[in-house]
Amino acid sequence: MSRLGVAVRGRLVEPYRLALDRYRTRPPTGGDSEIVTQVHRGDVRAFDVIVERHWAAVAAYLCTCTADLESVDDLTERTFSHAFVEAAQGAAPTFPWRVHLLATARGLVLREWVHRPVGPFLPGFRRWASAGGAWPLNCRPHLAEAYRTLPESRQAVLWHSIVEGDISGSATACLGARRGDFDRLASRARVALRESYLELRQRAAVLSVECTKYSALLAAAVAGGPTDPDAERGRADECIADHLAVCGRCREVYGDLADLDEQVRTQLPPLLLGWWPGPEYHRLRASQSPPGRPLAFLREAAARAAASASG
Ligand SMILES: [Zn+2]
């Protein structure tokens, strides 16, 4: 048998030991989805990287819900423990992990509120939870629908670049991309979102003859990026202005897509998470830092998961 054959056979026989040896000599790298795959294959320590990348965001999000910092720590650990078990069992999403972790944290803190509504929850969160933890009804759903039709990798790019405003280095690490590729990826993801939005609108077959006539001009008016010089967009704006004045449906599309970043920032997080205190979250995220290693709570979660799998 070739040396490669032996190595492959050895890895199959002792996946955990070999993965651990690999970790000791070379810390795991790769985007979030690759890390999660490594965890599923038995490299439990790879998940430390997920904690390092997303701890500040999850802790900040929970800080917008409760004033009890001990509770924030506990819920942050539980969020990652829960996500770790999902990853180990192969039940986790591949992308975008930031949204997945914030949604997990929201579910846990909401459950805390149900059990102990008199706890030190902050007024905004308390009002939202008391009202049934409802999704906002005043948001237009079309942008979120278009976002959901995109490949998960594009969703992650849009979330990190527009909603989180992440700097290139931290975002590309999560995405598993090269640092220099971030702007290009973000620009392509914006184009894909616009196209998906316009395509969904065409497919919904709600367009009048008049709207159909103006479709191409509307698409040109809301197009972005370096391939669309201001002059060209200005001409499209001028041509469609009369139609927008009389057509609410096209006005809505124009409103959603002409200033895409602002609309994504304001519409998307409340529609994906329900609870979203954007400015507060961003302010708090800057003051959080990940815990030092070793991450005892993760080792306990790994031991519990292994025990339940063998039991
Ligand atoms: Zn129209």
Keywords:
17 helices, mainly alpha, binds zinc ion, globular, disordered N terminus, 311 residues, 2 domains
Please characterize this protein's 3D structure.
Residues 1-27 have low confidence and may be disordered. Helix content is 72%, strand content 0%. The protein folds into 2 domains: 15-134 and 291-311, no CATH class; 136-273, no CATH class. It is mostly helical and 311 residues long. The two termini are 36 Å apart. It has helices spanning 3-13, 15-25, 32-40, 47-63, 69-89, 97-115, 123-130, 142-149, 152-163, 168-175, 182-203, 209-222, 230-246, 248-258, 260-273, 278-285, 296-310. α5 packs across α6 and α12 (209-222) packs parallel to α14. The site of zinc ion has 6 residues, from α12 and α14.
Summarize the structure.
With 311 residues, this protein is an all-alpha fold.
Helix percent reads over 70%
Number of DSSP helices? Answer: 17
CA-based shape: globular
Q: H/E element string?
A: HHHHHHHHHHHHHHHHH
Secondary structure layout:
Elements: H1 3-13, H2 15-25, H3 32-40, H4 47-63, H5 69-89, H6 97-115, H7 123-130, H8 142-149, H9 152-163, H10 168-175, H11 182-203, H12 209-222, H13 230-246, H14 248-258, H15 260-273, H16 278-285, H17 296-310
Helix pairs in contact: 1-2, 3-5, 4-5, 4-6, 4-16, 5-6, 5-17, 8-11, 9-11, 12-13, 12-14, 13-14, 14-15
The structure holds zinc ion (ZN).
Zinc ion is lined by residues 211, 214, 243, 247, 249-250.
